[in-house]
Design goal:
Layout lengths: L3 H21 L2 H5 L9 H21 L13 H7 L7 H27 L8 H4 L12 H19 L7 E5 L4 E4 L2
Antiparallel strand pairs: 1-2
């Protein structure tokens, strides 16, 4: 069983470990676009904000449904819509940290039983970062681990010295491994 408190602690640890490094990046460096279509690092953190908002909504919605089917979102459109490239870096980092603290609080409210309920009806084959096939049963805990892994993936792109906390995770059996 995956414990909600452990997932909450993982998210808060990631926020704590990345906070100082992110806040120290100057505006010119964080805003640099490698090419026209690729996101700047500022937009990448903005994408993580959009991911946090969408996943928070999914985690909350699960309280009122008996399946794990959630809507997707258009990540490139949202990054453009929110205009992260032209916003103050300090406001972006504040929102990124705040949204993840909000998700951590929500996970504690959901509790162990709710996040570990197995369901055969899901769409993680379409919305997941590490997708699983549609015929496999899964849990909300898997989606939470997937969210954390997605966050660490992008943090390691923005912060070259970032060391991932989760080294691997799987659906069946539902488990994850921490980096040593």
């Amino acid at each position: 069983m995956v414990h909600a408190k452990d997932l909450c602690d993982l998210i808060l640890d990631i926020v704590t470990r990345s906070r100082q490094s992110l806040e120290l990046i100057d505006e010119d460096t964080i805003s640099h676009k490698p090419s026209g279509d690729r996101w700047s690092n500022k937009e990448m953190i903005g994408h993580l904000i959009d991911s946090a908002i969408n996943n928070h909504r999914r985690f909350k919605a699960y309280l009122h449904q008996s399946h794990l089917v959630f809507d997707g979102y258009h990540q490139d459109e949202e990054v453009i819509l929110h205009d992260y490239q032209n916003r103050e870096w300090s406001s972006i980092t504040a929102l990124y940290f705040g949204m993840n603290e909000q998700i951590a609080a929500l996970l504690l409210s959901l509790g162990d039983v709710k996040i570990n309920e197995w369901h055969s009806q899901h769409n993680y084959d379409r919305i997941g970062f590490q997708r699983i096939i549609s015929t496999d049963s899964t849990t909300l805990a898997y989606l939470i681990l997937d969210y954390i892994s997605h966050m660490e993936h992008h943090l390691s792109q923005v912060l070259p010295d970032y060391q991932r906390i989760i080294s691997a995770y799987s659906n069946e059996p539902l488990q994850y491994h921490l980096s040593s």
